[in-house]
Amino acid sequence: MNGVTFFVWQDTDSDGNWVRLSTAGFTSSSIPPEFVPAEHFPGSALEGGDRNVEVSSGGALRLVNA
Questions:
Q1: What is the DSSP string of 6-51?
Q2: For residue 61, with 0-12 CB atoms within 10 Å meaning exposed, 13-18 middle and 19 or more buried, which class applies?
Q3: Rounded distance between C-alpha atoms, residue 41 and residue 52, angstroms
Q4: Cβ-proximal residues to 6 (8 Å cutoff; 6+ apart), any chain
Q5: How does pLDDT run across 4-63, given as a tens digit for each residue?
Q6: What is the CA radius of gyration of the chain?
Q7: How far apart are CA 52 and CA 15, in angstroms?
Q8: Exposure of 23 in the CB half-sphere (CA atoms within 13 A)
Q9: What is the pTM of this model?
Q10: Cα–Cα–Cα angle for 21, 23, 25, rounded to 5 degrees
Q11: Cβ-count burial 26-60 (b if 16+ within 10 Å, e if not)
């Protein structure tokens, strides 16, 4: 079975404090090499509150309020 590894973290950058998602690895403004902004996790990714990860039958991910 083939799979994809997703890296998920929360980080503040010039675009705000968001939960971020990448398949290329973890990136943070506090860790070299130079920070490259990562996409916001689809859905409700703004800071504050509990979230659940919703996985569609097609494999798409999104955050929903818990």
A1: -EEEEEEETTEEEEEEESS----TTSSS---PPEEPSBS-BSSS-E
A2: middle
A3: 12
A4: 21, 22, 23, 61
A5: 788 888 888 778 888 888 887 765 555 544 455 678 899 999 888 899 999 999 888 999
A6: 13
A7: 23
A8: 4
A9: 0.69
A10: 85
A11: ebeeeeeeeeeebebbebbbeeeeebeeeeeeeee
**Side chain identity, residue 4:** V
Q: Which residue, 36, 42, 52, is CA-closest to 19?
A: 42
Q: Are 53 and 63 in contact (CB under 8 A)?
A: yes
